[in-house]
Amino acid sequence: MAHLTELWRYPVKSMIGESLQTSQLTLNGLLGDRGWATRDEVRGGIRGAKKIGSLMRLAARYLSEPTLTNPVPDVEITLPDGTIVRTSTDGLDAALSKALDHEVKLFSLQPVDALDHYRRGPADSEDFLEELRDIFGRELDEPLPDLSKFPPVVFEYETPPGSYFDAFPMLLMTKQSLQTIDADVRRFRPNFVIDTGESSAGLPENEWIGNTVRIGECELKVETECPRCVMVTRGFADMPEDRTVLRRVVKEANQNLGVYATVTKPGKISVGDEFSVV
């Protein structure tokens, strides 16, 4: 029987997240997911580990469980040297900036109409193709992803206003696709990992695109594939930097791994919930 085998939430965008047993799925995604993010105080704009790679060496957890009335509680962040800081800590931004070797400021989720907060900062390169190759970690002989599948809003804003998601609120992967690429799930930062029960390797989630899937009492519309970027190569926790991971994704998975989804029926979600394509 296909079922949900892993459930992940990331309190701070691009930082190491939390493995959960149960949570609440809302129309805006997993409750508390990407409730905080760092703003680049050098170039401007909300920035993740595509640009500030050392963000992935920091770990974040909520000090209290998010609720519908308080979806973004305070967080505790563990720095690479083991120091623990909280969102209530005096000098928090200075401590984060020192750990990242880059000046940043931590923000909780801002209102959807705070457009300047979400607007893209300047690119690092005036050459658009060079900028894309840097973000997506592509070699010169590798294809760039098809960006037409993304909502137009993400070309003007770092994240869709009112959220800190790259493009869509949910990312789904299968145990089988991870086995195909032979890589640690933590590199790919999904919300849900599904075990389809298939014994053979492959990329079964690609067959869900355009369909609705049901997990327990919840339903999601699978929108498109997730093109992988340089983040999957970063070193963090007990994993070293490894650029061969991205090479395998480009070669063996047509540069996409996992699928983006939107929520159509919210509800409680738990590891072990049955999965099906509606």
- Average pLDDT works out at 95
- Fraction of residues in helix: 10-25%
Instruction: Give the CATH H-level superfamily.
Output: PK beta-barrel domain-like
Biggest β-sheet description: 8 strands, mixed
- Estimate the strand proportion: 25-35%
Lateral arrangement of strands in the main beta sheet: 2-1-11-10-14-13-12-16
Topology pattern, helix = H, strand = E: EEEEEEEEHEHHEHEEEHEEE
Oligomer: single chain
CATH class: Mainly Beta
CATH topology: M1 Pyruvate Kinase, Domain 3
Distance between the termini: 15 Å
Strand tally: 16
Low-confidence stretches: none
Structural class: alpha+beta
The backbone outline, from C-alpha atoms, is globular
Q: How large is the count of helical segments?
A: 5
Count of domains? 1
CATH architecture: Beta Barrel
Q: Compute the gyration radius: what is it? A: 18 Å
Give a written overview of the molecule.
The protein is 14% helix and 28% strand. The protein is built from five helices and 16 strands. An eight-stranded mixed sheet has the order 2-1-11-10-14-13-12-16. Strands 4-3-15 form a three-stranded antiparallel sheet, with no helix packed on it. Strand 1 and strand 2 (18-20) form a beta hairpin. 39% of the residues are buried. The mean pLDDT is 95.
